[in-house]
Structure formats: structure tokens, C-alpha cells
Write the C-alpha cells for this entry.
Amino acid sequence: MSRIKDFFAKTASNVKSTIFRFPVVLIYLAFLSTVMFIMIERDYINDELLGRLFFTGMFGTLMAMAVQFMLERFRNLSRYTLIFHVGTVILSVVYYFFMTDISMSQSMVVHFLVISFALTAAYLYMPSAGGSADFNKVALSHFKAAVTAILYGIVMFLGFVAILGAIDILLYSFDSIIYAHTANIIYTFFTPVYYLSLLPKFNSDEEDDIDKKEVSYSYPRVLDILVSYILIPLISIFSVVLIAYFIKIIFTGVWPVGQVGPMVLAYSGTGWFIYILCSDLKNRFSVFFRKAFPPVLIPLAAMQLVSSYIRIEAYGITESRYYVVLFGVFSIICALVLIFRKNRNSNIIVLLAAIFALLSIAPPIDAFTVSRYSQELRLEEILTRNGMLFEDKIIPNKTVSNNDKFEITSISNYMSRMGYLEEVEWFPKEYATDSKYYSGFEQIYGFLPYYDRYEPAPGEAQRYVYARLDENQNIDIAGFDKFIRVNITSSREYVESGSFLLDNNKYVIKQKSDGAGDITVSIFDENGSREIDISLKELVDRLFANSSGSKSLMTQEELTVTEQNEKLNIKITVTDINADRTNDSIYISGSMFVFISLK
């Protein structure tokens, strides 16, 4: 009993000291919890604003943590504490207005992830800057604190779920949204606060802090076994496989196309993580791994770079390829530094990681500028080759080969998703936004979006089609009492897709496929009796028969089927559908609106 009492007393003391140590961080965490609370309720504030606020809160939290660790490391800056904290708030405001957008674009998310990574690397590095603390012990302390806090959070959440579930069943029924609020409080606020409470003051010489550091720096036996006798042998075996593949390439001269890049990327990231974790271990497995990993990584990272170069030569640079190449260069530089540097301090890894991350978002060499320029050149070359670009104007051409249609569609869609089209001088500005781009694709290029390089031989049936409802058309709902949106599936057995209430009676929508293009949508009553069947076969056959390409915008009439009996009147309007024909089978996916009315 006394041990439990001591545990809670110690935890309360740690949390109390955390409040005074990280006040700004806690304010940001409370802000994040509030934003999450409103997002869960979603009564009156739009999701775009909440998303921007959440990203800003995350940025502010990480920035405040980095600032606090910097102030603890460089004590002469403590007189400017208030200025640094105010600066954190100002930078958060700047981030909100200049680094977030209403559309929550992909580039905004990538920017956030890169900045978050750089700030995390910064606050991990800061206590060991200038050799003030052992980085390996600092990293171990953070790792132990994070794992402990996450485990405590999971156990606490499961416990509250069990308690609330029992109350809901046995005593008082309440809205299930309370589970989301519970998760918010535990994971958005409690878990980070508890994580911070477990971190010692790395640069303090006070007796209490020294004692806390000794506990925090101790290497758990379980982790020692996991790293030394499980993770290191596994990654060593994987290294042998990659080295064997590298030797095979040398003898065959056949370089990989695409598949090896992500594999080596994951290997490198995992390897650096294990390298840092085992830096203080003295057993022979750990010592061998620290000596062998850097030189082994260099040829493998070089192989990854060559593989990426082949992809870039064929398809240009995108953000993902940019970061794969950047990580390959980072891995080689880190490996060389650790090989030739006498003091193999692992903090160089996170320092270089932070520098590379910041370089990747610094114009004009940032991932987005480089990718936009590369893809713009590719699109310009294809259009020029097909006589579709003259005096900075796109000339529609419907006679382009299917392969070039595919390339134009792929590049153009990518640039639209990333918001790059607005910056292309020769692209018509009236179609540069998402809302106008897809509906105006045919007017821009002279053909509908095309998604298949495959060109059927003369007399051969089209094997793949994709159709989408024209978003500019209004869907007619007159005469129907209910409508529900459901996904199209190709299950051979009946699958429930949705349910609805009509005239105080519950109905269930189920569907199944025969595998040959006939999807049957059925309505069942609450007793399990089938009320009506609607077949999509005629619609699918019509799509294949009339398809001149793999994708097209279609009218409501073209994508609608109706069925009725003495009780129900049903209309199905497909909003998008993929149909892939292989031999005698057809795989179909997509979504549709089901409109229902009683007769």
C-alpha cells in the first residue's frame, strides 16, 4: 500500500514540477485539447479552420519544447525567457497565416511534417549541444519516457472505456461521443504531460536532478535484450539480403526500378534508430553493429540513389522522390562522419537530420519548388511534342496517343492536387483551381482524363473503365423520401451497405456480385425479407461498350438505373465507378446514391 502511495505522490510531484518547467507547452496542449473537443462536437465551426488551428497548436507545442530545452542548456539566455516564449507565440501566429491554408493542401501537410521533424530533432539535440550532456543517454531518456507515457495512456483509456461502458449498460445511458472526449483528454493532454514529467533536467547539477537523471539514464534489461538480441540480429540479416542484391546488380548490370528505394529508406531509418538506441550498450552484438552499420550503409544508400535517379529520369521529381534522395544523401554523409570522426557521438545524426529537414523547405531548393519545376518541364515537353503548346497557350488535341494522354493526365492531376497549376504561366487561370480543373479537363486538353497506358488491340474489348458523375450537374431528388450514399463492393456474398428508416420501418441495403459485372443491390425489411433487387449489369456493360478511354465525366442520366415494384420506388445514381475486366471476371468498386420512396 505504501508503494502505491509513494508512486502517486512521486507522480503528483513530477507533474507539479512539469507545470512550472513547461508552462507554455502546457498552454499549447490545453489549446490542442480544446480544438479537439470542438472538432469532436463540430457544432458551429468549420473543419478547415479547426484543422489550421490544430496544426498551429502542434507547431507551437514543439517549438515551446525546443525553446525550453535551449534555455536549460544555455543558462545565460534565461534572462530572455519571456522574450523567447513570446517569440514562440508570434512564430505560431506567423505559421497560422503563412504556412496553413483553408484547403488543407498536401503541400501544407508535408511542410508541417518536415517542420515538426526538425523541431523534434532540435529539442532532442539541444541538451547535448557542445558536449554538455551525453546525447545517447538523452535519447534513451526520451525513448523510455515516451514508451512509458504511451503505455500508461493506453491502459488508462481502456480502463475508462470499461468503466463508462459498464455505467452505460448498467446505470445510465449516455452519448457514445464521450469515448472520443475521453481519448482526447488522455492522448492529447495527459500522455504528453506525463511524458514531459518523466524527463529530467539534463543540464542541471542539482542533487535531485542528478538522482532523477541516473534513474532516467538506466538501461532496462528488457530493452537491452530487445535491441541486442532481437533487433540487431534481424537488421543484420536484412543487411545481408540487401548486400546480396547489391552484388547481384553488379554482376547482372540490371538496376532496380522503384522497388528498392522505399526498402532501403526503411532500412536506413530503422538502422539509425537502432544505432542510437544501442550506443551505450557494451555487449559484442551492439559493438559490432555500431562498427559495421555505417560502412555497410554507404553502398546500399548509393544503390537507393541510383534507383531513384532512374525513376526521376523517367518520371521527373516529386516530393516523395525528393525526400528519398535527400535521405539517401543524409545517410551517406552521416555514415562518413561516423567512420572518420574519432568521437562517434550520435548527436551528429539528429543535428544533420534537422539541417536537412530545414533545407528541404527553404526556397529555391525546397521539395515543392524543385518538384513543381520538374513536373512543369515534363508536361511542357509532352505538350510541345504533340503540338499542344503554342505561344504560351494550350491547344486542345484529341488525337494524342494513349500513353501521352496518360502522362498528361497524371502530371496535370498531380500539379492540380499540389496547387502548382496556378503558378504555371501558360496554363489557363480559369481552370487552375480544383473546382474548375476536373470539369474543364476536356476543354483544356481536348480529351477526357485518361488513366490507363494500355491500348486495346483492334477488335479487343476495353479492359478498364472509370466513370465519374459530372459535379456541375444537380442531382434530381424529387419524388423520393430518403437517400443514402453507399460504397460499391464486389463481394460474392451479400454485404450490408447501409440502413434507413421509412414510415417507421427499418430497411437494410445489401449488395453482392456475380464476379462477371453484375452487382445486385437489394433492399431487405427488418424481418430479413427481400423487398426489391436492382441490377447494375446494364450500366456496367454500357460503360464498357461506350468507353473511348479509361476515364470520363458522365451525366446523371448515363449513370442512373431505376427499379420499382408495388411497394418501393428505387433510383441508383453512381457518383464514381471503377471497373477492371480480367479474362471472364470484372472487379468493380466505387460509390453511389440510393434514392428510396414508398408507393
The chain has a mean pLDDT of 87. The radius of gyration is 30 Å. Residues 221-362 form one domain.
